[in-house]
Amino acid sequence: xxxxxxxxxxxxxxxxxxxxxxxxxxxxxxxxxxxxxxxxxxxxxxxxxxxxxxxxxxxxxxxxxxxxxxxxxxxxxxxxxxxxxxxxxxxxxxxxxxxxxxxxxxxxxxxxxxxxxxxxxxxxxxxxxxxxxxxxxxxxxxxxxxxxxxxxxxxxxxxxxxxxxxxxxxxxxxxxxxxxxxxxxxxxxxxxxxxxxxxxxxxxxxxxxxxxxxxxxxxxxxxxxxxxxxxxxxxx
Length: 236
Prior knowledge:
The structure is a single chain. The chain has 236 residues and is of the alpha+beta class. 40% of the residues lie in helices and 20% in strands. The protein has a six-stranded mixed β-sheet with strand order 4-5-6-7-8-9, with helices on both faces. A three-stranded antiparallel β-sheet has the order 1-3-2. Strand 6, helix 7 and strand 7 form a beta-alpha-beta unit. The relative contact order is 0.11. The model is unreliable at 75-104 (pLDDT under 50).
């Protein structure tokens, strides 16, 4: 059974709207981001409904926070209306590192976690998410494509290297930063009208590099999203 089939089977078994975290567990996925990426694709195909609401499994656990949830649509009925509940007020940030690391088993600064935090933040800002690359499989193309008010945003997302590798994290981080900048240049060449940005976990190495290319960022232009350890996103 493919990952896509496992996700659809899990959604069919679910007793109501279900978030990516619980969906990944029910489908036996290694990474939450696989559920995030494939559900975005299934929503674009009209097979599921994906929006902010109450997760039925979270409610069972006594959690009533609003988050992205997924529901299978009846075949051929993409207009089906599903009651996802009234979104609860935003909660205070969870303890440092708890949200992303618990959901994926990877460090909060792993690229997939950084990407997931930014996708959730952009959705809350009114963006329609058109593409979320599968970081676990090294999928090619823009990491995130989002649209708001008819304007397309393309974001290159990078994590931060773990220690214990042959190349020091600070050195590898500079390579990843340069790659993100180069990706932005390619996107600008492909379409001069899109908004461009990069997203990084908030580390000193990346902050210093961003300051050193301030001229390029102003003239390209090129935005930066800083993802905090607590899951918050700070645009620059």
